Recover the amino acids of this structure.
């Protein structure tokens, strides 16, 4: 049973007063214009106005706020910088939005052991800047890294171009201090990163805030690569570029990053202030980066990759001459989402992942779907991982267009799933992809996830309504498992999995 | 109807081997993931206690139970995709067979777990026992794209998938990897592969532990990036003195450049091994841990490796040790007692270093537990997860021990 935050009325006012006592009145936002600024994340298609917004300034304040909300039974949603792309950090009017951006201290950098300890509100790129004097950096590099926070990265298990070689956020998180739904503080993992018991750190990363709030995050730092080569290859056809990706992967040389942009995306970038000099007449470009600690090895591997790209249809392969040119090539890629704002006022961003060998077929299928619905779809994505980002640009004011976009999105997702893929590689489920969850998980898997969530949060008060689509249980009956055709044996998600009332009080 | 008759009626005559186990526990070998589900669903209804076995070469098959469920008939490899560098294998496949099949397709699973060559994939995943290659390629969990496991009440739960990145839903794969079977029987594993390295070179240096520890520090300081970087005790390496073994794997250009950097950083003291010598060194070291009655791992900070090895030497001896100083991981093998293990674990806990008991006879496992005591507040979470996945307590797993 949960109470509500209630942005308005007596109850809302008394809650705001109690929160103010903990964090100070200036860090509690109750006025509608203030709350509306938190109504969206990086995805413009979802809007929820939170009941109350609270910005604690320390771990102890987080604990006190969470305990207060637990005592009152009020749901809450943790939020970082709000750059997420799944509607995951949005709170309804009956919930408190708990914004963690004031917890922004880098608590320790241990160069000998290549470890940093940070608070959740530390902006991703700031950590690398702080580690740079030690010759170290924090590897996961989502495109929003100049704004997004490490806490948000943990919640979403964020990726980024360089995760191809170095792994996503989960690979780099060694330990966590977590405030659970009832305000209890637990330490997960160990200082060196070895799990202490079952791997609860691994389980927590990517749980989209449903398991609690990470208040201290211990991460692995990597040595800054001493040698880097950045290649730009351009192609006459998307299919050829997709086939070149497979050839590079099969070579045994793992690039640090392997990104693809199609012509629509290239032109959007070249029309913007982020113009990188991409060839406008190319059907697609691949941005390939190799790095390592030895200049001669990286140079030789780059030559090998350039040869592979040419042999697989690249019209030309440009190697960045210096750091400035490299930065320019990357800026175009990293700001591509921003550049797409030029195409139309609204944008749907997808995040499916497919087996890399199916990229050529899937890209062609996406093109066919776009043509059939008369929509502009731009592709900019992590080709080396098979992590697609087909972006549909549209004007939501045009009657009926949003419905067409939704239909096309569903068809694109269906194509990706049919190719053996999944619905999200790095953006998370949030609100945006709830409807697709039953397409890849059967009732047993969804029931297991819900039961696990209730071990951490028995009342399902933390970020309610995200990740597991409980409202759709009845529809799960008969859904076929995407893999190996195993039939779903349960007709209801909440029938047989025990959901302990509170594992924390036992 | 007896248990054996009931299982035969359920899965067929050939799924049960009554005389197979030394302690007389009937051994059941389901032939499909669904059959595992059927068996465990029945176990839940009947209140049977089940121990899970693979090839029987790592964890002793000695836990008291009503029946032993072996994954050995789940030995198929449904897919190897060289173009995608992924594979799907059933949990009962032997690592040696899997490795061969992968190599035939030009692919490589960069895991070199301790144990005999025929150890099952499911065993490696369930116990999260990575070997020296963890230094360069990560822990067991980093090689998993997804798993399917069967819970204690017979439900098939799939987690993850077979693509390179996946954040759809909670990552239950992380619970299965290293859960020691407490949350379910792993039946199917989706693996992240690498292309078979074009070059693979191992170099070794013999010396005192103190001297080699210094050399290991020099290697780290020079930013040499090996695939494996392992300090082995003399008995383990079958040498007179301690051995520092460094392995490079990758493109020819990479291996040759890193080898040159190693030589430069260490004054050219390392000796390169021939391929057959290197293979024998790594394989014998891995197999040695399967011949000691007790194996455990500890994980500390890299700069505490030497101190931790002193502690191990003092409390349980250091005859069989393999350490990855670059990542702070140490594996110990040998003979020891419950009391010594408990005392060591308490000492290590004071240093915030977990000790995970990897293998031991049942009485030791039952007393000490694979994990022992958790950090404050974590125990109830683990207990809740166990109740979730094994509500009838069907699985006989010594997770916490009895202290």
């Amino acid at each position: 049973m949960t109470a509500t935050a209630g942005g308005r009325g007596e109850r809302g006012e008394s809650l705001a007063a109690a929160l103010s006592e903990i964090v100070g009145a200036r860090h509690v936002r109750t006025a509608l214009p203030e709350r509306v600024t938190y109504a969206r994340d990086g995805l413009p298609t979802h809007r929820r106005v939170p009941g109350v917004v609270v910005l604690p300034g320390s771990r102890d304040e987080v604990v006190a706020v969470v305990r207060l909300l637990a005592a009152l039974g009020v749901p809450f949603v943790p939020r970082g910088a709000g750059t997420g792309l799944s509607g995951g950090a949005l709170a309804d009017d009956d919930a408190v939005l708990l914004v963690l951006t004031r917890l922004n201290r880098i608590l320790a950098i241990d160069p000998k052991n290549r470890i940093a300890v940070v608070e959740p509100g530390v902006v991703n790129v700031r950590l690398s800047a702080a580690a740079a004097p030690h010759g170290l950096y924090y590897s996961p590099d989502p495109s929003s890294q100049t704004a997004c926070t490490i806490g948000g990265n943990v919640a979403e298990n964020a990726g980024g171009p360089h995760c191809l070689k170095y792994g996503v956020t989960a690979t780099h998180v060694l330990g966590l201090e977590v405030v659970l739904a009832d305000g209890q503080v637990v330490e997960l993992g160990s200082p060196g990163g070895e799990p202490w018991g079952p791997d609860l750190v691994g389980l927590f990363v990517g749980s989209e805030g449903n398991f609690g709030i990470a208040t201290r995050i211990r991460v692995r730092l990597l040595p800054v690569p001493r040698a880097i080569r950045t290649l730009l290859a351009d192609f006459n056809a998307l299919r050829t570029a997709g086939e070149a990706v497979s050839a590079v992967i099969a070579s045994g040389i793992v690039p640090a990053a392997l990104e693809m942009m199609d012509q629509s995306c290239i032109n959007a970038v070249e029309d913007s202030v982020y113009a990188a000099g991409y060839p406008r007449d190319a059907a697609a470009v691949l941005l390939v980066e190799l790095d390592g600690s030895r200049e001669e090895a990286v140079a030789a591997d780059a030559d090998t990759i350039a040869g592979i790209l040419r042999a697989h249809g690249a019209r030309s392969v440009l190697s960045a001459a210096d750091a400035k040119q490299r930065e320019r090539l990357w800026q175009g890629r990293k700001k591509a989402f921003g550049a797409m704002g030029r195409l139309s006022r609204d944008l749907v961003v997808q995040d499916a992942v497919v087996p890399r060998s199916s990229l050529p077929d899937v890209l062609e299928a996406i093109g066919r779907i776009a043509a059939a619905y008369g929509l502009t779809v731009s592709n900019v994505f992590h080709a080396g991982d098979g992590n697609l980002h087909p972006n549909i640009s549209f004007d939501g004011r045009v009657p009926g267009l949003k419905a067409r976009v939704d239909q096309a999105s569903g068809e694109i997702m269906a194509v990706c799933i049919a190719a053996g893929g999944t619905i999200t590689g790095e953006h998370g489920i949030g609100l945006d992809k709830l409807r697709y969850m039953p397409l890849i998980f059967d009732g047993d898997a969804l029931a297991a996830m819900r039961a696990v969530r209730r071990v951490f949060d028995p009342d399902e008060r933390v970020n309610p309504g995200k990740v597991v689509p409980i409202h759709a249980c009845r529809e799960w009956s008969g859904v076929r498992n995407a893999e190996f055709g195993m039939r779903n044996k349960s007709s209801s998600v909440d029938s047989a999995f025990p959901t302990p009332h509170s594992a924390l009080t036992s | 109807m007896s248990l054996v008759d009931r299982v035969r009626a359920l899965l067929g005559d050939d799924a049960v081997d009554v005389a197979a186990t030394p302690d007389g526990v009937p051994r059941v070998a389901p032939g499909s993931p669904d059959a595992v589900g059927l068996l465990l669903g029945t176990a839940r209804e009947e209140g049977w206690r089940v121990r899970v076995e693979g090839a029987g070469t790592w964890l002793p098959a000695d836990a008291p139970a009503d029946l032993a469920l072996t994954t050995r008939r789940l030995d198929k490899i449904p897919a190897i995709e060289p173009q995608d560098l992924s594979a799907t294998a059933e949990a009962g496949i032997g690592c040696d067979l899997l490795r061969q099949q992968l190599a035939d397709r030009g692919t490589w699973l960069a895991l070199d777990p301790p144990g005999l060559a025929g150890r099952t994939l499911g065993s490696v995943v369930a116990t999260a026992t990575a070997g020296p290659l963890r230094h360069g390629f990560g822990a067991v969990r980093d090689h998993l794209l997804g798993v399917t496991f069967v819970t204690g009440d017979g439900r098939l739960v799939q987690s993850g998938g077979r693509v390179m990145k996946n954040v759809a839903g909670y990552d239950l794969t992380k619970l299965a990897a290293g859960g020691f079977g407490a949350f379910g029987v792993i039946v199917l594993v989706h693996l992240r592969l690498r292309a078979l390295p074009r070059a693979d070179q191992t170099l070794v240096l013999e010396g005192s532990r103190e001297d080699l520890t210094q050399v290991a520090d020099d290697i780290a300081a020079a930013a040499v990036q090996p695939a494996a970087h392992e300090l082995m005790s003399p008995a383990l390496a079958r040498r007179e003195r301690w051995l520092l073994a460094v392995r490079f794997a990758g493109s020819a250009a990479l291996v040759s450049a890193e080898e040159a950097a190693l030589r430069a950083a260490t004054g050219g003291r390392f000796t390169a091994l021939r391929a057959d010598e290197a293979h024998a060194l790594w394989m014998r070291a891995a197999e040695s841990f399967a011949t000691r009655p007790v194996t455990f791992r500890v994980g500390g900070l890299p700069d505490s490796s030497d101190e931790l090895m002193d502690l191990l030497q003092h409390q349980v001896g250091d005859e069989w040790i393999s350490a990855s100083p670059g990542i702070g991981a140490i594996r110990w093998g040998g003979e020891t007692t419950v009391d010594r293990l408990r005392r060591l674990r308490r000492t290590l806990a004071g240093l915030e270093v977990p000790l995970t008991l990897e293998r031991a006879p049942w009485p030791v496992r039952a007393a000490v537990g694979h994990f022992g005591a958790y950090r404050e507040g974590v125990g109830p979470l683990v207990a809740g997860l166990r109740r979730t996945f094994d509500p009838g307590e069907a699985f006989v797993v010594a997770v916490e021990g009895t202290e």
